[in-house]
């Protein structure tokens, strides 16, 4: 038993801890030894075993004293985008090489305060820009899943690819992710895990390296919907240090998981029927709707007419904000600085540092962002994209005004692809991964990916549920009903 403790989810481990049948040190040691033999997955990029064991011992003492908060003693991984005090926090980029934050992000601090045990930092696309983890300075994280009878290395998705791979491979009980255009939900769908992007403003962005500030949200990546409810409760809450964080009470999400969705109205948006989507994803979507109906929900066809403009609008707004946010990496105060030659001035220092420190995808986004914000093009691109964003938000508001409680869509347009198989010559091919997820970020809504089936290659497929703002509890409950009905239990066979 003891060697399999890393396979537990948060809820099971929490219950075992409280019953006293297991200790946090045992759970932590099981995860640390799973991590030790997981180099082929390249999921953990900075390991913190000493911190982990110290926190585990403290958690065991708290449990013994009868003072066990929500995440007490539960070992988790933290995406490299979160600043963790004194622990490398590189956002997957060379430009943050050697950066040791002097402070802790609010979310990772809240998790620590709730007793969670940090095992280390998880791989990700550079500055969260990507859908395959291939833009990471550490090299891509690798999915524990493989196509049947094939040894091709598959992507765990991105940008939270290390988090998804680590949770799916049982290297940790759960992990943090962040989602700007799909970075929690797409990797969750690719790896048979659960990922929720909460309402914009639900989790503090303070200390989370900024990519596109009006879209970025942190959220949990877990083995079940119940675990997502537990962990989101610990991550969420008002933070005066983030001016976009909202002062709205955080309910007990787990207590809202009744599985009762009788009378709930679930919208099926016709604009999400996209040409080229594989039949098995269309079938999964229809099956998901049938399962929710069988559980007592009412299924209604809805229209979100501006959906097709979402992806182009996102790929204007996100780079625009990124170009501004990334201007701070100049080689002066922290991170990487290029070696200079005699005669080089400050301009050469910036140029060389940024050319060396940023990878190609990040450079592309900085250039696109600078272009769409430039004097002559601001109205044509950036302002237009902002107007489109308002229309997309209104589409959802209209649907909710008609009484729709949640919207069901596929999470991704395909199952996981092979590393090196996508976007090599055309970056837009990679951007299409976000076609079902970016609308949710543009509208600031909560969205969750739930594993719902396997494709013909034996790879996981996920469905997405989109909810009303601030109603994550209700959304999690609908996701819980879907999870129960879908009964997804597949795990990747161990090859690493
Ligand atoms: N950060 C994200 O949500 C990932 C998205 N695919 C992007 O590259 O922008």
From TrEMBL:
Function: Allows the formation of correctly charged Gln-tRNA(Gln) through the transamidation of misacylated Glu-tRNA(Gln) in organisms which lack glutaminyl-tRNA synthetase. The reaction takes place in the presence of glutamine and ATP through an activated gamma-phospho-Glu-tRNA(Gln).
Name by which UniProt lists this protein: Glutamyl-tRNA(Gln) amidotransferase subunit A
Annotated ranges, domain Amidase: 26-476
Source domain of life: Bacteria
Cited SUPFAM superfamilies: Amidase signature (AS) enzymes
NCBIfam families, A to Z: gatA
InterPro entries registered for this protein in UniProt: Amidase (IPR000120), Amidase_CS (IPR020556), Amidase_dom (IPR023631), AS_sf (IPR036928), GatA (IPR004412)
A GO BP entry: translation
Subunit structure: Heterotrimer of A, B and C subunits.
Protein family according to the UniProt entry: Belongs to the amidase family. GatA subfamily.
Enzyme class: ligase
This enzyme's EC code(s): 6.3.5.7
Organism: Antarcticimicrobium sediminis
UniProt KW keywords: ATP-binding, Ligase, Nucleotide-binding, Protein biosynthesis, Transferase
Reaction(s) this enzyme catalyzes, per UniProt: L-glutamyl-tRNA(Gln) + L-glutamine + ATP + H2O = L-glutaminyl-tRNA(Gln) + L-glutamate + ADP + phosphate + H(+)
Gene3D superfamilies assigned: Amidase signature (AS) domain (3.90.1300.10)
